[in-house]
Amino acid sequence: MQVDLKSAPRLDRSKSPLNSCVPRYGALRKPDSGGPMLYIEVQRHFRCPIGATGRSWDVTAASSDAGLSLPPGYRAVGLREVGDAFSAAIGMAAEQGAGTLVWTRRFDLVEAAVVLEPEEALGTARRALFAGMNAAADALASYCPPEKPIVFAWPDTIMLDGGLIGGMRLAWPKGAREDQPPDWLVLGLMLRLMMPIGPAVRDRTSLEAEGFEMLEPREIIASFARHLMVHFHAWRETGFKAVGADYLARLSPDKSARRGIDANGDLLVHRVGKPGAAERQPLIPALAACSWLDPSTGEPLC
């Protein structure tokens, strides 16, 4: 998803002793020690412009003492129930920078978005989506009944026990070059806690319907944030291979094929018994389609 926003001024961190710790993919490390350090940068109240419409929401930025317990490296921004975490994170990405985590205080949805500043070129940095998918699945697995399988549908849909429960979104600045690191990426998560009132749909579900013991959005978001750092750490230390393998292990099974993820994030499908080049399922058009999201409600299909 490309986003066309007027460029916003970046915060001047050049004089900060923590300048070298500005998070890349949401991770911070203390210089010369390898230990974690929290870069605290809090504005108690401000207004965040959203998109080209000029709309804005009142938001409150806070550290982990505002009801959301995050690991070092994140800054929490909480929205009211009517807020849109993904759009808000896009609106503040250029100014607030990496590690900003925007979340919405809702009882029926888990909704959060993280600002990233990748050091890789955009063409390969979009693979951050798969780290986010892995982190979301790991967070769900922490509270999920063991008999409930968590499965991905290519590339951004999350299924729980056969029912659609939510997914991920990814945004980057419009006009960003494929061969250069983008100024920012925004990774958005949305999971359905409770089904809306109405007729049940067979292939849709919610955490409540699947017997989750934990229905507190803040705990799931915090778990997602922790697991996201784990996957980005693995990527940084050993390369993308482990992240890709974890994603493919949860991708909807296909016994007739061997699958891989190309450097640009496309899915490569090698059909058993069919020699020749692999089938390619491009990532960018699939992200634009966002097949799990209902455009009329801005929520998971139900």
Detailed description of the structure:
The protein has 302 residues and is α+β, with helices and mostly antiparallel strands. It has a single domain (2-300), classed as 2-Layer Sandwich (BirA Bifunctional Protein, domain 2). The protein is 24% helix and 25% strand. It has 6 helices and 15 strands. It has helices at 85-96, 122-125, 128-143, 217-238, 241-250, 283-289; strands at 2-3, 46-50, 55-62, 75-79, 100-104, 109-116, 150-153, 157-160, 163-173, 185-192, 257-261, 267-271, 279-281, 293-294, 299-300. The strands form 3 sheets. Strands 1, 2, 3, 4, 5, 6, 7, 8, 9 and 10 form a 10-stranded mixed sheet that branches. The longest helix has 22 residues, at 217-238. The radius of gyration is 19 Å and the shape is globular. The two termini are 23 Å apart. Residues 5-65 have low confidence and may be disordered.
| CATH fold node name | BirA Bifunctional Protein, domain 2
The CATH homologous superfamily is termed Bira Bifunctional Protein, Domain 2
Q: Helix/strand-derived class?
A: alpha+beta
- How far is it from the N-terminal to the C-terminal residue, by CA? 23 Å
Number of β-strand runs: 15
Query: How much strand content do the residues show?
Result: 25-35%
Average pLDDT level: 80
Quick description:
This protein has six helices and 15 strands.
Outline the fold blueprint.
Layout: E1 2-3, E2 46-50, E3 55-62, E4 75-79, H1 85-96, E5 100-104, E6 109-116, H2 122-125, H3 128-143, E7 150-153, E8 157-160, E9 163-173, E10 185-192, H4 217-238, H5 241-250, E11 257-261, E12 267-271, E13 279-281, H6 283-289, E14 293-294, E15 299-300
Parallel strand pairs: 1-9, 4-5
Antiparallel strand pairs: 2-3, 3-4, 5-6, 6-10, 7-8, 8-9, 9-10, 11-12, 12-13, 14-15
Helix pairs in contact: 3-4, 3-5
